[in-house]
Backbone:
């Protein structure tokens, strides 16, 4: 499995404390805080064939509410979480073609802000 630089500092995980419902119901600062927590948890989650525990998270992250959110921090954190979700699910994807297109459009839009 792929490892990030912080994984050597934290034990690998196979669960997350943030749920899809928690993301969908959160607003403002609470949403940013939950996405930050999820980002930290997903970074230490190992790639696995049994990634079903992330299905509701993947569904929430792929929702237009987060993909097209007006807050730049929310979009950046959503993109970060989505990149880890795709890593964990690889080589499969939790998204259909249309949703995957939306995910990659978010990635591209976030990359425009780099540099």
Residues:
């Amino acid at each position: 499995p792929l490892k990030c630089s912080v994984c050597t500092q934290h034990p690998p995980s196979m669960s997350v404390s943030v749920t899809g419902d928690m993301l969908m119901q959160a607003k403002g600062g609470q949403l940013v805080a939950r996405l930050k927590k999820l980002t930290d948890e997903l970074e230490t989650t190992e790639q696995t064939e049994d990634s079903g525990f992330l299905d509701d998270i993947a569904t929430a992250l792929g929702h237009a509410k987060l993909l097209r959110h007006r807050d730049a921090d929310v979009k950046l954190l959503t993109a970060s979480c989505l990149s880890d979700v795709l890593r964990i699910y690889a080589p499969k994807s939790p998204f259909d073609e249309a949703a995957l297109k939306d995910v990659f459009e978010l990635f591209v839009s976030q990359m425009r802000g780099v540099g």
